[in-house]
């Protein structure tokens, strides 16, 4: 105790002392030179040193050159330097290089007798790791009232910051979900409103086309109108109508859905000379909407086939996995890889834009846009890797879906079909 007492240079004689405690309260030590004998002053200093040592906050003092003159136990714990290591060192010891200029402005305030209150910043531990702190820095005066240094009280706010951040993240997620829900509802009602007149017009055009005595020119116009109308219907079907409203999410076996889609597409694959390699784990469950998940899978399979007009290889897998960004978050990964044309560097940033297509009249440009919206709605993430290098071009789409159940002990169904 005596060791620290000497190192803590505070004026205990001139003015009442206020000391911040870790709960935010202040301890007051009314000590004046007139009424205090040497003995009383020493006992007050002793009490003060005890408070400093037992504080949960790091309490450090430094002189006006920025040299550390005292260092309490919490400072040892917080920064990893022992008192002996820290004292005599410049305060820059614990300031990250990119924040060195902070110290100049702090010392400047201190020299002018001003405090720095609850300054939230970052400091560095002995092992180089960073710690978020709230600092209160006050001038220390000698018995003549001259400013000779500063005392710093630092509180670790890493945890509080983390809580704040995760709160903010969940608020953002909520807002996003709300937006998507609103967009989904709008889309669903739009689809409904558009579909009815669309089928009336389609029917009317069909009847019109079969009216006898129509001039070839009129026939031609009706054909154009029908084609364009069919295109419109496709757009509505591909985008709007897949957002269902009011359905309750269920546990969906992702592997089973993918197997079904592959089955539906099988004759198309065969016709296009596409061979399939599949490795589908079953029993991996996503909590969501099976129609929407199916829509994602179908859109991706369709894109893959369309990228291989001369045939090629398609590999599809469903397996347990981890998040790329959050190692601890587990999920179910769906990968769809094709040996198709690949996506050029210029095109890549735009593929998720609505109505962006490189397939002219044949494409709607809605497939990936819709897929991404539906994946986000399920809290999943999508990643695209692609190469259009000659000889080994291809695209791999990888989606991580959050797992609704256990993801260990899964059976894997694998097989391959080679197109004739
Ligand atoms: N597997 C793939 N291989 C090559 N290009 C792809 C693939 N998937 C998507 N693309 C590119 O992304 C664009 C947008 O895809 P999408 O939104 O599904 O619309 P569409 O298929 O109607 O063009 C496509 O036009 C194509 O250029
Ligand atoms: Mg598409």
Structure explained in plain terms:
- By secondary structure, the chain is of the alpha+beta class.
- It has three domains: 2-156, Beta-Lactamase, CATH 3.30.450.20; 158-246, Helix Hairpins (Orthogonal Bundle); 248-420, 2-Layer Sandwich (Heat Shock Protein 90).
- 40% of the residues lie in helices and 26% in strands.
- It has ten helices and 15 strands.
- It has helices spanning 2-7, 38-54, 73-79, 83-86, 100-111, 158-209, 216-238, 254-271, 290-306, 367-377; strands at 17-20, 26-29, 58-63, 68-71, 116-124, 130-141, 147-156, 250-253, 274-282, 285-288, 312-322, 330-338, 381-387, 394-402, 411-417.
- It has a six-stranded mixed beta sheet with strand order 13-14-12-11-9-15, covered by helices on one side. A five-stranded antiparallel beta sheet has the order 4-3-7-6-5, sandwiched between helices. It has a two-stranded antiparallel ribbon with strand order 1-2.
- Helix 6 runs antiparallel to helix 7 (216-238) and helix 8 (254-271) runs parallel beside helix 9 (290-306).
- The termini are far apart.
- The model is unreliable at 1-14 and 31-36 (pLDDT under 50).
- The protein binds adenosine-5'-diphosphate and magnesium ion.
- Adenosine-5'-diphosphate binds at residues 299, 303-304, 307, 338, 340-343, 347, 351, 356-359, 363-369, 395.
- Adenosine-5'-diphosphate is lined by residues 299, 303-304, 307, 338, 340-343, 347, 351, 356-359, 363-369, 395.
């Amino acid at each position: 105790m005596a060791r620290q007492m000497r190192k803590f240079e505070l004026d205990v004689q001139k003015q009442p002392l206020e000391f911040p405690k870790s709960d935010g309260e202040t301890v007051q030590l009314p000590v004046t030179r007139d009424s205090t004998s040497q003995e009383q002053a020493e006992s007050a200093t002793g009490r003060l040193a005890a408070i400093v040592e037992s504080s949960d906050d790091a309490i450090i003092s430094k002189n006006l050159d920025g040299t550390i003159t005292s260092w309490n136990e919490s400072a040892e714990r917080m920064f990893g330097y022992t008192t002996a290591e820290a004292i005599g060192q410049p305060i820059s010891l614990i300031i990250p290089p990119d924040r060195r200029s902070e110290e100049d402005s702090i010392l400047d305030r201190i020299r002018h007798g001003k405090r720095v209150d609850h300054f939230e910043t970052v400091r560095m531990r002995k092992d180089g790791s960073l710690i978020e702190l709230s600092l209160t820095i006050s001038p220390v005066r000698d018995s003549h009232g001259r400013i000779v240094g500063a005392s710093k009280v630092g509180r670790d706010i890493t945890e509080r910051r983390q809580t704040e951040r995760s709160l903010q993240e969940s608020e953002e997620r909520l807002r996003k979900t709300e937006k998507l829900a609103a967009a989904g509802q709008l889309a669903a009602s739009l689809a409904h409103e558009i579909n009815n007149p669309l089928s009336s017009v389609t029917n009317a055009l069909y009847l019109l086309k079969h009216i006898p005595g129509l001039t070839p020119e009129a026939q031609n116009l009706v054909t154009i109108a029908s084609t364009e109308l069919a295109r419109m219907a496709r757009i509505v079907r591909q985008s709007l109508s897949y957002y269902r409203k009011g359905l309750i999410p269920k546990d969906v076996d992702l592997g089973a859905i993918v197997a079904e889609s592959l089955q539906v597409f099988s004759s198309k694959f065969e016709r296009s000379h596409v061979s399939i390699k599949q490795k589908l784990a079953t029993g991996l469950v996503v909590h969501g909407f099976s129609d929407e998940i199916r829509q994602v899978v179908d859109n991706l399979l369709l894109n893959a086939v369309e990228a291989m007009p001369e045939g090629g290889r398609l590999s599809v897998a469903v397996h347990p996995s981890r998040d790329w960004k959050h190692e601890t978050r587990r999920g179910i990964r769906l990968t769809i890889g094709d040996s198709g044309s690949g996506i050029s560097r210029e095109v890549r940033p735009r593929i998720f834009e609505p109505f962006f297509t490189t397939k002219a009249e044949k494409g709607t440009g809605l497939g990936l846009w819709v897929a991404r919206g539906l994946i986000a709605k399920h809290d999943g993430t999508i990643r695209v890797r692609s190469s259009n290098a000659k000889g080994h071009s291809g695209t791999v789409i990888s989606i991580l879906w959050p797992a609704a159940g256990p993801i260990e002990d899964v059976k894997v169904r694998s097989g391959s079909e080679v197109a004739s």
